[in-house]
Amino acid sequence: MAIAKAERLMNLALCLLGTRRPLSKGELRASIEAYIESGAGASGESGNDDAFNRMFERDKDDLRELGLIIETVEGLDGETGYQARRDSNRLPAITLDVEEAAALGLAAKVWQQARLAGAASGALQKLRAAGMPLAEDGSHSVLETRIPAHEAAFEPLMLAARDRRPVVFDYRKANAVHPEQRRVEPWALEFCRGHWYLAGWDRDRQAERVFRLSRITGKVRSRSLPFTAPVPDHVTVRTTVESWAGETATGTARIKVRAGHGYPLRARAGATRDLGDGWDELEIPSGHGLDAWLVEFGPDVIVLEPAELRADVIDRLRAVAKG
Question: What is the dihedral of CA 146, 233, 162, 293, to 10 degrees?
């Protein structure tokens, strides 16, 4: 079965690459012996038509997954034609030095725990086949990079950002109980402070926004619509997240943290004092967005000063309590 499918894909690729004009689905159906022999090539029966359509769509997707660029052209008679132009599928020579090849190998390891593992491994295999000086599988490296991507929203957002397609999803803010719908033009995904974040253009708010993927609820739905805002050359996801955490500090805050809790806060504390009764007092950098971060720790954190920060945290907690 594997050999038969490989032969069918090869014949389809040769047809698409060898034609000087787009071929209709019917022409491809009559030209490839594997479609006829499988019974999908017989015409006049809806069952056979359905079988062929399913097989053809799978084969076309498989070829595109392998890297073949297949163009879809609408004919004057309204019939769709398919073609893989040679100039679009011809790559320039690739040359990598040892350091560049090592960097690619290390980057591919990042995705071993994600849905991109297969694509990353396939890319390395193609480079090895082209003679690139990549390290062999199983070789030991000083650096072992792992970035998990367990959020269900990761893959659809990554594909939408790649294809420049707007998305719709439900998002729950840190100070809210119920999620609300967001319509976003996705720009980039970035891993920061142990979480994945999406940067993009919020269509309803007409402004750039950053969303934490773990706060996206339900499915991410993509839309076949063009972007309405230009995509910037540089997206400052990390800067935004750091501002949320108060890392762009303009002062110092004193907070009480329950013993055994708030380890990210303790890691940033400039001073720590045991208050007894299961509480510690911390001095941490204070800046824009710190109130939103502190709210996430709930009853395990109490703000002592400054008064403005304490009031902002209380307001956020009251909003959560009201729902």
Answer: 50
